[in-house]
UniProtKB/TrEMBL annotation:
<keyword id="KW-1003">Cell membrane</keyword>
<feature type="region of interest" description="Disordered">
    <location>
        <begin position="1"/>
        <end position="38"/>
    </location>
</feature>
<dbReference type="Pfam" id="PF00528">
    <property type="entry name" value="BPD_transp_1"/>
</dbReference>
<dbReference type="InterPro" id="IPR000515">
    <property type="entry name" value="MetI-like"/>
</dbReference>
<protein>
    <submittedName>
        <fullName>Sugar ABC transporter permease</fullName>
    </submittedName>
</protein>
<dbReference type="GO" id="GO:0005886">
    <property type="term" value="C:plasma membrane"/>
</dbReference>
<feature type="transmembrane region" description="Helical">
    <location>
        <begin position="138"/>
        <end position="159"/>
    </location>
</feature>
<keyword id="KW-0812">Transmembrane</keyword>
<dbReference type="GO" id="GO:0055085">
    <property type="term" value="P:transmembrane transport"/>
</dbReference>
<comment type="similarity">
    <text>Belongs to the binding-protein-dependent transport system permease family.</text>
</comment>
<dbReference type="InterPro" id="IPR035906">
    <property type="entry name" value="MetI-like_sf"/>
</dbReference>
<feature type="domain" description="ABC transmembrane type-1">
    <location>
        <begin position="101"/>
        <end position="309"/>
    </location>
</feature>
<dbReference type="InterPro" id="IPR051393">
    <property type="entry name" value="ABC_transporter_permease"/>
</dbReference>
<feature type="transmembrane region" description="Helical">
    <location>
        <begin position="106"/>
        <end position="126"/>
    </location>
</feature>
<feature type="transmembrane region" description="Helical">
    <location>
        <begin position="288"/>
        <end position="308"/>
    </location>
</feature>
<keyword id="KW-0813">Transport</keyword>
<feature type="transmembrane region" description="Helical">
    <location>
        <begin position="44"/>
        <end position="65"/>
    </location>
</feature>
Length: 318
């Protein structure tokens, strides 16, 4: 009897193995039959992706690699470049203007982060169906379509200590852009105007995608005001908030146009930032290698921040 049961088990195992082999053979046959279609789909996908990949390679990857390479050279843009190794980075570390620019970038970063909450507040105010709200939205949207040069000129006139609106409001003039203590804060305040409008647009778009059933259920449970905003609305706006913060941080780190129009980095380089310092060294002094080193440092700062927030967002979604 034991021998009979053992032989039966062996037969059943052999039959199972035969069935598995048959299934594997059928699956491989299906894959072989589907392989021409699969290959055509892969070729089509590659053809559609190829133009975008070429553009990214030419206008993103290649400039980044070229900038990193140039940062190891002493080059004025006309004569042959001379390899100097890490000399540009060593000089950058010992330059006082670099730390002034870095400090101003930190000030820009912290104050510029006021734009997302202010944009959210304006978006919540405008997200209502009342008469004339479209006209009000257009007024709040107007700063976003203005160029940085126009915004800079408007606030330069606003800060003017002789005939500016600020002097009229205070009763006396304050040289905001001519004082090293106030210049950076005055420029950041001017930059917050269009940046808040941009964040407002992002949040207005996000508010249109809210789940109406969750909102209604929360109201039926008695959620109102701040509780409804904090526990129901803001969790659904997390992707919009992430995008607003990333764009705002990048805007703070690459701030250039308003500084160029309003102060030119002055007075005495007190309002310069890394982006303007990079431009100043390349255009005024023809130090392209040193300017590339500044660009590499600025790119590294942006990259660390963006990678950190991307990992945090992915971890939260998982």
């Amino acid at each position: 009897m034991p021998e009979a049961s053992a032989s039966g088990a062996l037969e059943s195992q052999a039959a199972a193995n035969g069935q598995n082999a048959s299934r594997a053979t059928q699956a491989s046959a299906r894959r072989r039959r589907a392989s021409p279609t699969s290959r055509r789909q892969q070729r089509a996908a590659l053809l559609f992706l190829a133009p975008a990949c070429v553009m990214v390679g030419l206008y993103v990857i290649w400039p980044i690699l070229s900038t990193i390479r140039i940062s190891f050279y002493n080059w004025d843009g006309m004569t042959p470049p001379a390899f100097v190794g890490l000399a540009n980075y060593v000089e950058l570390v010992h330059a006082r203007t670099f730390y002034t620019a870095l400090k101003n970038n930190v000030i820009w970063l912290f104050l510029f982060l006021l734009a997302p909450p202010m944009g959210l507040a304006v978006a919540l105010y405008l997200n209502q169906a009342v008469r004339g709200i479209r006209f009000v939205k257009s007024l709040f949207f107007a700063p976003f379509v203005l160029s940085g040069v126009v915004v800079g000129l408007i606030f330069t006139w606003f800060y003017d200590p002789t005939f500016g609106l600020l002097a009229m409001m205070l009763g006396h003039g304050i040289p905001v852009l001519g004082d090293a203590r106030y210049a950076t804060f005055g420029i950041v305040f001017a930059a917050l105007w269009p940046q808040t409008a941009y964040c407002m647009i992002l949040y207005l778009t996000g508010l249109t995608t809210l789940n109406a059933e969750q909102l209604e259920a929360a109201r039926m449970e008695g959620a109102r005001g701040w509780a409804l905003l904090w526990h129901v609305v803001l969790p659904q706006l997390r992707p919009t908030t992430f995008m607003a913060i990333v764009v705002t941080v990048i805007g703070a780190l690459r701030s250039f146009d308003l500084i160029s129009v309003m102060t030119g980095g002055g007075p005495f380089e007190s309002s310069t930032v890394l982006a303007y310092y990079m431009y100043d060294q390349a255009i005024k002094y023809f130090r392209l290698g040193y300017s590339a080193a500044i660009a590499v440092v600025l790119f590294a700062i942006m990259l660390v921040y963006i990678v950190y927030h991307l990992r945090r967002m992915l971890r939260t979604e998982q």
